Task: structure prediction
Amino acid sequence: MADDQRRHAGPNDEDPPVGLDPYTEFLDYDLPAYVGSTTFQKLPFLTDADALRARRPDVAIVGAPFDDAVSHRPGARFGPRAVRVASYHAGSLNSLQLDIQPFDWLDCIDAGDAPIVPANLARGHEVIRRKVLEVAGSGAVPIVIGGDHSITFPSASAVAEVVAPRRMGIVHFDAHADTANSTWGVLASHGTPMRRLIESGAVEGRNFVQVGLRGYWPPPATLAWMQDHGLRWHLMTEIEERGAEAVVADAIAEALDGPEVIYLSVDIDVIDPGMAPGTGTPEPGGLLTRELLRAIRQVVGRVELVGMDVVEVAPVYDVSEVTASAAHRCIMEAISALAARRRQRGEDPRPTTR
Ligand code: MN
Ligand code: MN
Result:
């Protein structure tokens, strides 16, 4: 990279570039966010399974552009593309909160999308499962951009398969429990993935911890099933009373009560719809964006993260792109916290090579 630094300039160089050819002076990575590559934060695009296994990235972004399982407003199929480009930054990023430049510490790539086609629910879930299996099997932490929340069943199932025999807990931020047995008779809707994960044995109910639930769903019979299966959940009212940090600390301890590793699932509708309107089932009275970003730093900073998803971003309901922008930052907070953990453990940096 030393050669590149002599031949190329960066957007934030202290000294303006002198004597470089303007046609080539900036690498694609360093060009403005609206120019050139549309991968997540212009990370290298690496979709081939063999190439993934050879490179063994630390983190891989995966798109799951699938919304065939929604119960109300559709549009989350456009989430991955919107979230990938929902940033105005170019070049190296510097987390002020964690005092780290994450791409200097972790090899991060964009593994592209699962090969979804419309109107085929079973096929969609199967190709998402296989894509996440490929990525997690390469040794990378998959960070999956949904898509409706039904994608968490194939995604977390694939990660659980890769980490076995280690047991996995799940921390789930959402306005909704997503633990129905069926919605209008459909077992694989976005209201049911958490029940499917527990029934399949991918995760034990007692290590499935939900944060931010509120509103008018699920009904008592579903809550009774959750209680019977040992799920633990923290309502928004508890967060209002105790503060998010104390509640999230409890959620981490509960999810790790047995398991060694954590899958983090973030439904963007856990944020108040005033701050994240671009979603399918907006539920008033949610988290502040800053509380969710802090909570993600808290979780990822204290556990061994093996997979993550950020789901239910439906950009069409949000002309100002604040929802996609919040989702982008959820992912960046996780990557930055993973980088800070690597530094804290005294491991050598493994910068993203381009
Ligand atoms: Mn959900
Ligand atoms: Mn939800």
User: Anything to note?
Assistant: Residues 149, 174, 176, 178, 267, 312 surround manganese (II) ion (ligand 1) (CB under 6 Å). The first helix runs from residue 2 to 7.
